Amino acid sequence: MRVGVAVGVLVVLGWTYARSVQRGSVNPFDFFGYFTNQTALWSAIVLGATGILLLLDRIVPASLTLARGVAVACLIVVGVVYNGFVPGTGSAPPWVSAVLHIALPLYTVLDWAFVRDHPSLPWRSLWLVLPYPLLWLVVVLVRGQTDGWVPYGFLLPSRGLGALVLTSLGLLAMLLAAAAAVWALSRLRVATTADVGSRR
Fold this sequence. Notes:
The chain is an all-alpha fold. 70% of the residues lie in helices and 0% in strands. It is built from 8 helices and no strands. Keywords: Membrane, Transmembrane, Transmembrane helix.
């Protein structure tokens, strides 16, 4: 199923980008400047790679499992921010927003929590959730100051330095909380049919 979900996400992203090109927006840096689109692409890659390796009965590298955990944490932030703070915004069709902001985050969390085919993530690696979002945030803030483009209204330079700092800290705190939940979920053992059978 992971491979199918990965292909579906890539199709949605490709269709949405093609639609934006038809509407006159051809800059891929703008399209993939959205944290949602970047994270969806990353999630599709790690989900697809994990699914293919398991179908081939190959060992999934620890680095890929870690990348998947980071992607799940980032998608939790995507879902919470969009549905909790900026619902209904953006130029994408409603069904695209539903796929990327609701369906994909829900699927990845449920898959991570209930499909126990990955090892526990060590707490010492929790900090690795930060580099990608921090880099994205720095690039967005620099672009906002230089060419005026930002993907989300809450990152507009016109809001002032203090508001941007508080917003950034709030987002990073939310990310760390999401990552802690993902790391904790990786350490929980959910009973499976095989487990139940082995206890009889």
